[in-house]
Amino acid sequence: xxxxxxxxxxxxxxxxxxAQRLRVLEALLRRRIDGNAPAVxxxxxxxxxxxxxxxxxxxHPAILFLAAKLGLSxxxxxxxxxxxxxxxxxxxxxxxxxxxxxxxxVTEALALAVLLPSLDWRLEQRGRLGDRGPLxxxxxxxxxxxxxxxAALLPTRRxxxxxxxxxxxxxxxxxxxVLHGSPSTLVSMPDPGEVAATLRDPDxxxxxxxxGGPGAGxxxxxxxxxxxxxxxxxxxxMAVAARQVDPAELPVVVAELVDDAGLIGLPVLIxxxxxxxxxxxxxxxxxxxxxxxxxxxxxxxxxxxxxxxLLRKTNLLSLSLNANSGERGGMAKPRAVVDTPDLLxxxxxxx
Length: 351
Fold this sequence. Notes:
By secondary structure, the protein is an alpha/beta fold. It has helices at residues 13-34, 62-70, 74-88, 90-98, 108-115, 119-124, 134-137, 157-164, 192-200, 218-229, 238-244, 250-263, 275-278, 280-293, 304-310, 345-350, and strands spanning 106-107, 141-143, 152-155, 176-180, 207-212, 232-237, 268-273, 297-301, 316-321, 335-336.
């Protein structure tokens, strides 16, 4: 018996909208492949969302509300759908390749050619998809490899979440968990409660660098601190990350997680940071995310001096523990969060 889409139940508004835009984009890609570019201008790159795409209807997908909130145009939304489509769908990526996308990747030139087929139109918008354009500067897309003029455009975690209607911290890698903080009876010097109060001060430090030798209880102490900053926090285990993620991609992956956590107000605990294993660029990128989003980060590492230098542009609090820092009390194991926060929280914060 033939299976239809309805057999699987209704799609979410976000996925239904994404599928509808992909059908439009598929038609435009096929026209380009066949040499039949549209004779009329589809839209100006900077015009507001078309009336049928406005975000005022409460039944509309979240991407439309977010696009209006963040100042994205209909053109921006379609470029984002084009890039995400090539990332998540094999057949769509094949069409992108036939249309001129290298290895099925969307480039700035291809996106402009598909959506603005006239040379004059493209020249007007030259650079809109570059580093200062709303999609790259807003953290929805990034150029592959960081910077060639016509590098492939890749969706960030934020871009994928926006298009698919998912929370920013959905689909976490195995080395990352959102945890509920658990009450601690830890008695130690320095006192985690006092440090937490310092970090919560709007004018106080944003990064706590926790160091100490083996057996000093760095992780136990840092977890107690994170629980006081909560009630939820994002934990990144860099020992696991170093085994799971391509070293060339690790700085970007970690920075995106820290940046997105900051946008929704979650503190971040980065544990087991050994620079010889993860590389200095990871910590440099974390520092840049702290400056950009004002996120509170706890870094646990034995490389105190090296990490301090890499984080020098942040407001930094350095803490060195040793095996005699104080008596350690009991502490319940943190538990993973099972509820999904509201997708729109971060957009409201941005607004």
